[in-house]
Amino acid sequence: MKIPFYIVDVFAEKKYAGNQLAVFMDAKDLSSEEMQRIACEINFAESTFVTHIQPENNTATIRIFTPVSEMQFAGHPIIGTSWVLLNKIFNNQPQSMTLSVPIGEILVQQTTDLVWLQAAQPAFMDVFSHEGLMSFTNLVTADFDATFPIQEVSTGSAFVIVPLQNKKALENIHFDLDKMKEWLQKNCKTNHRALYFYCLEEEKISTRMFCIEKNALIEDAATGSASTCLQAFLLKYYAPEIQLVNHQGDCINRPSQIYFDGKRSDTYFDIKIGGKTQFLAKGEWEV
């Protein structure tokens, strides 16, 4: 059996930047095990599998896999897959669509060269001390921005949001992997255990995302799901309305730009992230 696939760079202002994504079409007959093996073989941060599509209604259903597990929600796979569907698959070239993922339906819109997704309502979970983070990093007290808490937030996938004072502290982070793994397993409320460090300087956000996969430290080039959590965090603690650009991936030579457009009204969060997608290749995968 052969299935078509596309490769794109997501949250990328140009090719060979942002976060890589493989989008596999006509995947309804693949088993979960086959999807996982394919995602492991291609070894991008995530790959998506389109299992159901209704071009007449501008809707599709996808599953999202990292090289080691299935995700319930992830931003760059949703943005990238939607771009492929809107620009390469749907003949009527619509400007909006609905993408179903395990956590539910996600509204996606395309404006000029940006694709935007509307995130689910956030859950704000445990708050942590600086000392906890210092136990497995080289950070010192002065590196943290004490204006904000350190808190785990989820809009479908959970991240521990860690505010830092400046970009120098962000760029120079180092970890004790064993102690980091122990801390994440002890403190994170879900099976998705990850850290999202950020600094906010002169209205510019710089970020880095770290997690552990196969006992190795992984840094992500552009993390849409973490960006929705960070936007929710900033709407709660920084300002009730935000229009900023999140810069991620610079430290691993994959510069990425994730656009924020959010508002908060009392307890309701209107969270949108957007990004550009660069088309690289298409082909056939023999299963």
Descriptive account of the structure:
The chain contains six helices and 18 strands. It is α+β, with helices and mostly antiparallel strands and 287 residues long. It folds into two domains: 2-119 and 275-286, Roll (Diaminopimelate Epimerase, Chain A, domain 1), CATH 3.10.310.10; 123-270, Diaminopimelate Epimerase, Chain A, domain 1, CATH 3.10.310.10. The chain has an 18-stranded mixed beta sheet that branches. The protein is globular.
List the SSEs and their pairings.
Blueprint: E1 2-10, E2 19-24, H1 32-42, E3 46-54, E4 59-65, E5 70-71, H2 75-89, E6 96-101, E7 104-111, E8 114-118, E9 123-128, H3 130-134, E10 150-154, E11 158-164, H4 167-171, H5 177-187, E12 194-201, E13 204-213, E14 216-220, H6 224-237, E15 241-248, E16 256-265, E17 268-275, E18 277-286
Parallel strand pairs: 2-3, 4-6, 11-12, 13-15
Antiparallel strand pairs: 1-2, 1-18, 3-4, 4-5, 6-7, 7-8, 8-17, 9-10, 10-11, 12-13, 13-14, 15-16, 16-17
Number of helices: 6
Largest sheet: 18 strands, mixed
Find the CATH superfamily of the largest domain.
Diaminopimelate Epimerase, Chain A, domain 1
What is the H/E string?
A: EEHEEEHEEEEHEEHHEEEHEEEE
Taking pLDDT < 50 over at least 5 consecutive residues as the criterion, the unreliable ranges are: none
CATH architecture of the largest domain: Roll
Q: How far apart are the termini?
A: 5 Å
Structural class: alpha+beta
* CATH class annotation of the largest domain: Alpha Beta
Précis, in short:
It comes from Flavobacterium restrictum. The chain is of the alpha+beta class and 287 residues long. Helices cover 21% and strands 45% of the residues.
